[in-house]
Each structure stands twice: as C-alpha cells, then as structure tokens.
Design a protein that fits this description.
This protein has 2 domains: 137 residues, Aspartate Aminotransferase, domain 1 (Alpha-Beta Complex); 255 residues, Type I PLP-dependent aspartate aminotransferase-like (Major domain) (Aspartate Aminotransferase, domain 2, 3-Layer(aba) Sandwich), CATH 3.40.640. It contains 14 helices and 17 strands. It is globular and about 70 Å long. It starts with a helix and ends with a helix. The structure holds 4'-deoxy-4'-aminopyridoxal-5'-phosphate.
C-alpha cells in the first residue's frame, strides 16, 4: 500500500471522520483537546457493556470475574505501553488532572512542608499548576517557575539555577498543549535526580505521539489521559514508582482501597488498589487497553513520521499567509501549531473557520501564563493527528483567507 491508501484505510477506522459539519466534510484539528476514537475502541466499550458489565474485584459470580480479568488485562497493556516495571505501578484515574492531583495531595501531604520548594514551568497546563499551588497554600511550601524563552522552549540554565536542597518536587509537562514544544524531560529528570529530587511528568500531550519508556526516562510519576490517546473520556493513568507509591498516604478513600475496616481502625489495600477508591471506570480502562494496542498496530514510528510531515506542511502553508504570526516556534515540536491572524481576535477567527467544518481551538488552552508571556488573549490552535491529511490543511488555509476577507 502507498501512503495515501494507508491514510485512507486509517481514516476509515474512525467513523466520525466521515461525517459532515454544515454540509462540509469535518476537518478535525482539535486533537490536543481530545482525539477521535477508532471503531475498535468503540466496539470494546460496547462489548464490555453488552457482554461483561459487572463490578470488579468482588469475585462473587462469573460476570464479575470476567470483568475483573479484562480490567486487569487492560492494566497490563498500560504497563507494557509505558514499560513500567510492575502492574503495581499503574493506577487508573479519571485522567491527567486527577493523576496530578493525586501526586500533589498524597505525595505532597507527606513529603512536602513549610519552606520546601516545588518547581513547575511556565509552559504548564493549569492542571499542573493549581494542585501544587493549593499544596503550597496548605503547607507553606513555595512554587518556583522555570521561565520559557520566546520560542516556547524552556530556559534550561534557569532550571538548573532553581534546583537546590529545598526543592522537593519537579513537575513539568512532556509536551506543551498550547505550543507543541517537546520538553527535554530526560535532561530535567537527570538534573533533579542528582539532588535526589523526584520528578512528575504531565504526559497528556505525549502519550498519543511518541514512545514512552518510564524506566528509561527514570521519572517518578507519569500522568496521561485516555481521551487524548484514542480511548474514552473519564479514564486516565498515573504511573508511580512502586517505592514511592508504597509510602504515600491514600488520596481518596472508601471501598476498594481498604483491607479491613473497623470503627477503631482501617487497614489499606495493596498497590495499585490503594489508590483506586470506589467503583472504577472498568469499561473505560478496557477500551484504553484496546486504544493502546491500536496505536501499537499503527506503529509509533509511523505516527511520528506522518505527524512530522503534516507539521511541516502546515507550517509551510501557513507561512504563505503573510498576516500569520506563529506563537511558539521551538525546534522540537509535536504537530501542534498556535498562531494569530494579524490583530484579529482568535475567537472571531475561530467562529468563521468553524463554518468551513474545520475544528480548531481558540483561547488560552488552559495555559494562561503562556498567554501572559506573549501578552495575547489567546491563540488559534491547530493540533493534528496521524489521521489528518494535507488536503485538510488546504481547507484550513482557505478558511483563513476567508477570515481575512470578512474581518479586514
Ligand atoms: N496537561 C496537559 C498538557 C493537557 O493538555 C491537558 C488537557 N488539555 C491536561 C493536562 C488535563 O487533561 P485532562 O483534562 O484529560 O485531565
């Protein structure tokens, strides 16, 4: 098969890609917000609810055993996908936000105190800022911020200067959702580990685009969301090094996370269940396992090559429009491009682009500090996935020309 046939075949895996919006073919360029779902994932969810639906780990009957087994197989698929040492290190959460909150609340509560420092970066999504800020307010710890340079890369020298014996956590994104910058997390982790400082990685924007090997990275925590990885909403992952998870206090409490409950004392369950209070999103976890297998079938090398080709084409075509101002031009990027059309407000541009059936995101993308850095209200963001095409990029460019005609 040639590449065109490959892409056509891949696109046919995603039912939503063949629908129309305002009578025009959908052009879905909002993959950083959430990815579309292939039929195998939708089928896995349907199969779970039509054939297996039952509560897990209660072992009383056939269906419950079946659901528990499939749920635990999904955990193994996640473990393999990120190359974790053990299934004890894979905690199912509702998404990246919950995973980050878990680390901040649980690890933070026990190991971070007054006068300690937590390092985040100017590139972070709000969900990797606010939980740490709340922890700082509760404990008297101090939030320190790695500044970014104007091209959207992190100032690594400034980071090295921020590290000091009071630093008790470094929490940075793997990839910026607003700018697409790929952060050199291996270097960040190595520098922190020289001072025995743990590192949390927000992998929300990486998990669908590149191979993740938590052992090779050496990170202490790694978080990602199912829905940005071709799986359903409401399921996500926290990877944590077992030695750390073992000594962390519970985050949420209730059923599942306990061993014995009496009114005088409760003992907690083993990993990973200690951090999975209440009924989990069993169908979501199973469908996440299927989504990760789907990605592996397509191949992460193929995905990286294809998305690089799309990024280059998008940049090239946007560069032909002289009013375009690129926001974030880091040399290492995923297929995310943020831009402005001269002085036109991104919301106005987005509303017109939408009428062409093109889904782009406008606004601050939950990264207000980045917008503050550039002193802009927001950007227009096109975030592409391997199922997008050059032809769709041409439709976007046509829509931008229309924006100029209408708003100038
Ligand atoms: N971090 C980054 C970098 C993100 O892009 C997002 C989602 N936009 C999140 C965290 C939060 O993910 P979720 O809403 O799936 O919890």
């Amino acid at each position: 098969m040639n590449i065109k046939q490959d892409i056509e075949k891949i696109r046919s895996d995603f039912p939503i890609l063949s629908r129309e919006i305002y009578g025009k073919p959908l052009v879905y360029f909002d993959n950083a917000a959430t990815t579309q779902k292939p039929s195998v994932v939708i089928d896995a969810l349907t199969k779970y609810y039509t054939e297996q639906n039952s509560n897990v780990h209660r072992g009383a009957h056939h269906l419950s055993n079946l659901a528990s087994e499939t749920f635990e197989q999904a955990r193994i698929k996640v473990q393999k996908y990120i190359n974790a040492r053990s299934i004890h290190e894979i905690i199912f959460t509702s998404g990246t936000t919950e995973s980050l909150n878990l680390v901040a609340a649980s690890y933070g509560k026990k190991f971070i105190g007054k006068g300690d420092e937590i390092i985040v970066s100017e590139l972070e999504h709000h969900s990797n800022i606010v939980p740490w800020q709340i922890l700082c307010e509760q404990t008297g710890a101090v939030l320190r911020v790695i500044p970014m340079l104007d091209d959207g890369t992190l100032d690594f020298e400034a980071y090295l200067k921020l590290l000091n014996p009071r630093t008790k956590m470094v929490s940075v994104t793997h990839v910026s959702n607003s700018l697409g910058t790929i952060v050199p997390i291996k270097k960040i982790i190595d520098a922190a580990h020289e001072l025995n400082i743990p590192v949390t990685i927000d992998g929300a924007q990486a998990s669908a685009h590149m191979a993740i090997d938590v052992q090779e990275l050496g990170c202490d925590f790694y978080c990602f969301s199912g829905h940005k990885t071709f799986a359903p909403m409401g399921i996500g992952v926290l990877y944590g090094r077992e030695e750390l998870l073992e000594v962390m206090p519970p985050f949420k409490s209730g059923g599942e996370m306990i061993k014995i409950v009496t009114f005088s004392k409760t003992t907690f369950n083993d990993l990973p269940f200690r951090f999975e209070a209440g009924t989990p999103n069993v169908g979501g976890a199973i469908a996440l396992g299927t989504a990760l297998e789907y990605i592996q079938d397509i191949g992460l090398n193929f995905i990286a090559e294809r998305e690089k080709a799309l990024l280059d084409y998008l940049n090239k075509q946007l560069s032909t429009v002289k009013e375009i101002r690129f926001i974030g031009t880091a040399p290492e990027k995923t297929s995310v491009v943020s831009f402005l059309i001269d002085k036109i407000h991104p919301y106005d541009a987005g509303a017109i682009i939408d009428r062409f059936g093109v889904a782009v995101r406008t606004g601050n993308h939950c990264t207000q500090p980045i917008m503050e850095h550039y002193d802009i209200p927001g950007t227009i963001r096109a975030s592409l996935s391997f199922y997008n095409t050059e032809k769709e990029i041409d439709v976007l460019i046509g829509a931008i020309e229309k924006v100029k005609k209408m708003l100038y």
